[in-house]
Amino acid sequence: MRNGGRWLAAMAAAVTALLGCGGDETVPPKRATKQPPVIDILVDANRDGELDADDEEGKNEWTLDHGASYLANLDDDDSNGVRDADDEVINGDTDFDDLAYIVVAPWADAPRNTTGVFTLDDASAANARLWKQGADGAWVLVGGSLGPCDSPTAPCQTVPTIAFDTTEVRRGVTLAIEARAFKTSNDMGAWSGYTQLTYSLHDSKDQIITTDTRPDGFDYAVMRVAPWMLNGNLSPFDQVWSDGGSSVFVKGIQAATDEAGITYKTYKNYADQWTQDFFQTAWTAIPGKDGTLHGMRVANARPWSQSEGAENLPIAWLMKNYLGPDHAVVKFYFDEHIDTATSYDSHGNHDLIPPYVNGESNFPMGRIFIGSGVLAETKAVYDAQGPQSPHFSVDSSWLYVGHIDEMFSYVPAKTARGWKLLVGSPKLARTMLEKLSADGNGAVHMFVGKKRYDPSDKFVDAEVAIDDVLANVDLMQWSQEAQAEIDSDLADFQDEVGLADDEIVEIPYLFEEILGGKIAYQPGTANLLAFGDFVVHPDPFGPKIGGIDVFKKDLQDRLGTAKHALGADGQGLEVRFTDDWSLYHILDGEVHCGSNPEAPPPSDGMKWWETGR
């Protein structure tokens, strides 16, 4: 571990010089006129990744233009299996980089027995930690939330106030702050996510020292914990996760990720192949130097497991398999919901609408989008973040699984908005099949060689002729009902976002009904994996005419050409397919449900603090 970093000493010296507070570290310098009291703390108020005299302006408030921030330091830079905000040491250079620094300016002429008092507000003291650099360069944990925070009955010790002795007052003090949590609620009494810092000087009689510029004797600064920022289909994904149990599924994803030049990572021996559902990927960041972002990826866990035992909970899997340098792990639920779990809490039912403006609604970093039944505490966390909130929701209760990814997805487009919505369309699927039948192809089979479960939960042949599909009265009725539900949800979405009809691309597949809820009968090809200009659909196993899968060709024509101006250049997406039939489709899910892309904090574009949220 470095001893605090030489650059920190240089930074402190620069601040000292800029404030006109130079002098020996331990004794007052000899000078004709003694320096008046210096009551001053500095944070990165101007958001340039540096601490200097320019940070004096606006440091005591948080606005669109000014205000410092700090990270929830929940990654594991030394890879010891403990999140850095729970370690009792700073874990090397990369962990230092995840701290935000606070400089308490020196008063070189402080009289003997002068003390300094530095304070965090009580709510922040329960959610953040303060480190202090000693004269020897070593760092010591001195304030805020201390201890392991094992349970509500064994809470952390909180130390809101730190005292500096005369030597430290004369020398000045460098502190570093990190959060142990994100803001979790907008409710009155909950932590606001804003941290009020105060500093005062006290004389030998413990009386507060005042000055003309500090008539009450206090200097103030405000910091804000950086928000948790959800990824969406337009994020700069550089890695994809999935279960490795299906070789044909893996083969299709691997081919697409290799072509796109991003990493593909599979796992085995975990009782959940629904990779999108049991964890969610996001990021958090603060201003870095030269206009950059500095932060980490963040994965949050679903509150229940597919199998019994605490060791099988998603949070346990993430702590073992995801946590690491620049890979943070968090959970937003109060308790494990093993006995009361619903599918609504799976993250296929939680998404991000890409950036949009509609009247007075402006979401330049996208907006969190959910379906029915999401836990109240999860919604509270989403709404507490700011830049992507408040969440928007539609009714997904009509679906058997209940996830919005069963009907909606998003892809880049060369349009003013920059993206278009893909929507599942049973109406279009029926129209396509009817045309095939009218053209004399009604005897052609779809789902050739595939099996599915029948109502008695037995494997049966899935292969079926086009005309038999169209003659299935129940299937046609279920699809019509699903279309009505989709139309209703889509109307709500369009009203909220201001999406025009030509910004919607229909994706054809029929729906069936299971136990009163609708599910994709054909592979639900809107339920896809997207990264960059690539989309990976479930193979539709549609009817082949002249050796060509009609539904595959339709998707290629619809999405892979300039017809809808999709892709960064408007010339179409890179449309790919993978076989998800056995591991996902017949188990009521598709490609998006079984894959999970992640991304670092974005390297360009708008910063969250520029949104005014």
Report on the architecture of this protein:
With 613 residues, this protein is of the alpha+beta class. It is built from twelve helices and 37 strands. Strands 1-3-9-5-6-7 form a six-stranded antiparallel beta sheet. A five-stranded mixed beta sheet has the order 2-11-10-4-8. The longest helix is centred in the last third of the chain and has 25 residues, at 473-497. It is elongated. Residues 1-7 and 21-26 have low confidence and may be disordered.
List the helices and strands and how they pair.
Blueprint: H1 6-18, E1 41-42, E2 68-70, H2 92-97, E3 100-104, E4 115-120, H3 122-125, E5 128-133, E6 139-146, E7 157-159, E8 161-164, H4 166-171, E9 173-179, E10 194-202, E11 218-225, E12 229-230, E13 239-243, H5 247-260, E14 263-267, H6 275-278, E15 279-287, E16 293-301, H7 314-321, E17 327-330, E18 350-353, E19 356-358, E20 361-363, E21 367-370, H8 376-385, E22 392-393, E23 408-412, E24 419-425, H9 426-441, E25 445-446, E26 451-453, E27 459-461, E28 464-465, H10 466-471, H11 473-497, E29 504-508, E30 511-514, E31 517-520, E32 529-531, E33 534-538, E34 544-545, E35 548-549, H12 550-559, E36 574-578, E37 595-598
Parallel strand pairs: 2-11, 13-14, 16-17, 21-22, 24-29, 33-36
Antiparallel strand pairs: 1-3, 3-9, 4-8, 4-10, 5-6, 5-9, 6-7, 10-11, 12-15, 13-37, 15-16, 18-21, 19-20, 23-24, 25-28, 26-27, 30-31, 32-33, 34-35
